[in-house]
Write a structure and sequence with these properties.
The structure is a single chain. By secondary structure, the chain is α/β, with parallel strands linked by helices. It has 2 domains: 124 residues, Periplasmic binding protein-like II (D-Maltodextrin-Binding Protein, domain 2), CATH 3.40.190; 81 residues, D-Maltodextrin-Binding Protein, domain 2 (3-Layer(aba) Sandwich). 40% of the residues lie in helices and 25% in strands. The chain has 9 helices and 13 strands. It has a 5-stranded mixed beta sheet. The chain has a 5-stranded mixed beta sheet with strand order 10-9-11-8-12, sandwiched between helices. Helix 2 packs across helix 8. It is globular. It starts with a helix and ends in a 6-residue tail after the last helix.
Length: 237
């Protein structure tokens, strides 16, 4: 009986260690080319490829979880997944609630897209996704902010005249503007944020260090810049 108890305890410990090696990666799945759902119904994009490689280098097993942007931080804190990898810029405000790894892309310029060249972005009605650095920027400017839950809705607001322009990451807007003759970039780009990083719970210091080491190794061997160039998400390091 004693041996049975010890064996059972050992199996339980082994199972616990195996579970600890699985990391749940939370992403929006609606922000191409950073992250999106492909035709097979799977999470795809720059961050899917990056996340899988980081897990490989950190000897972790990735599990992918799709989560709406407006609840992505609360659901990390509450334990629905272990990492946010969703084009999230590192900001002081977010860093008060969660922790960040080092950035895996440099700051990506934000840009305005509109249907007319003469839009007054300083005083007009500007669309942005809720909870983004772009929404915060507009709210502090002289423009009128209209917020939407998804990035697709911000584009729709410009197309249907509900907003004069949209402010978002240029890497997200560029392919949309290229494919739609009615949309064009206007005004100057806006530098925002401190680059994009992985979000983790403040209590997960060991996980943060493993991911930091993996990110740094990709920076050192040039593979991170190759991924950035492949997906055209930002400038390279």
């Amino acid at each position: 009986m004693k041996n049975l108890i010890l064996t059972t305890a050992a199996l339980a410990l082994s199972a616990g260690m195996a579970m600890a090696d699985t990391v749940r990666m939370g992403t929006e799945g609606a922000y191409p080319p950073w992250n999106f759902i492909n035709d097979a119904g799977e999470i795809d994009g720059f961050e899917r490829e990056l996340g899988d490689e980081l897990c490989k280098r950190a000897n972790l097993e990735c599990e992918w979880v799709k989560n709406d942007w407006d609840s992505i931080i609360p659901n990390l804190v509450s334990g629905n997944y272990d990492v946010i990898i969703a084009g999230m810029s590192i900001t002081d405000e977010r860093d008060e609630v969660i922790d960040f790894t080092q950035n895996y892309t440099p700051p990506d310029p934000s840009a305005y897209v509109a249907t007319s060249d003469d839009v007054d972005v300083a005083n007009g009605v500007i669309a942005a996704q809720t909870g983004t650095i772009q929404a915060g920027y507009i709210a502090e400017s002289g423009a009128t902010l209209v917020e939407f839950a998804s990035p697709e809705e911000t584009i729709a607001a410009v197309r249907n005249g509900e907003a004069d322009a949209v402010l978002a990451d240029k890497s997200f807007l560029a392919p949309i503007a290229d494919e739609d003759a009615d949309l064009r970039f206007v005004a100057e780009d806006v530098p925002l944020g401190g680059g994009v990083g992985l979000g983790v719970r403040e209590s997960d210091g060991d996980l943060k260090e493993k991911l930091n080491t993996a990110i740094q190794s990709m920076k050192d061997d040039g593979s991170l810049n190759e991924l950035i160039t492949k997906w055209e998400v930002s400038s390279t390091f």
